[in-house]
Amino acid sequence: EVQLVESGGGLVQPGGSLRLSCAASGFAFSSYWMHWVRQAPGKGLVWVSRINSDGTGTSYADSVKGRFTISRDNAKNTLYLQMNSLRAEDTAVYSCARGWGHDYWGQGTLVTVSS
Amino acid sequence: QSVLTQPPSVSAAPGQKVTISCSGSSSNIGNNYVSWYQQLPGTAPKLLIYDNNKRPSGIPDRFSGSKSGTSATLGITGLQTGDEADYYCGTWDTSLSAWVFGGGTKLTVL
Description:
The complex is a heterodimer of chains A (about 120) and B (about 110).
Chain A: E1 3-7, E2 10-12, E3 18-25, E4 34-39, E5 45-51, E6 58-60, E7 68-73, E8 78-83, E9 92-98, E10 104-105, E11 109-113
Parallel strand pairs in A: 2-11
Antiparallel strand pairs in A: 1-3, 3-8, 4-5, 4-9, 5-6, 7-8, 9-10, 9-11
Chain B: E1 9-12, E2 18-23, E3 34-39, E4 46-49, E5 63-68, E6 71-76, E7 85-93, E8 98-101, E9 105-109
Parallel strand pairs in B: 1-9
Antiparallel strand pairs in B: 2-6, 3-4, 3-7, 5-6, 7-8, 7-9
């Protein structure tokens, strides 16, 4: 069974940093591109970033470019999102999703940026 | 403001059919495959349709997808109360080098 479990969210002050993790199981993690998607409370889905299967290629939404870094450890079957210089508008549930078409999603981890 | 435009809400009676539109441009829908997602209240999104019109295993054939030019459409027949959810379209935008989602459509089954 495919499972994606996010962790690392929490309350952080503006300007602070967090690192999110997404632990994958039940499939060949190293064969899949992976994405991070966020959803602010009561709002729609917003794509954040993607990484290719071996970690050599990444893309970012303009809103996070230069502040967020996506990475992966295929030996640990884990996807990461390093978030720096956090802003109030980054408050959202952050979910990882598998593959180019996002065929499986995790339940997400809540990031709250507030003083 | 989303790159892909969806109606904020649609509604229909149980057993009826509904369609949800998703409008984009040549840099996204016009030249890339479209996916559709269902998000039931309080749950993670679920892939309903990929590559414009393909259904993942386990998705009933009541759900269908189509694409024409720079627009895509999700169709749901035989509506059930359990279909009440938010529905999102998504695709790659070649100009932005980014995945883009529609703003979402809330389906109410009256």
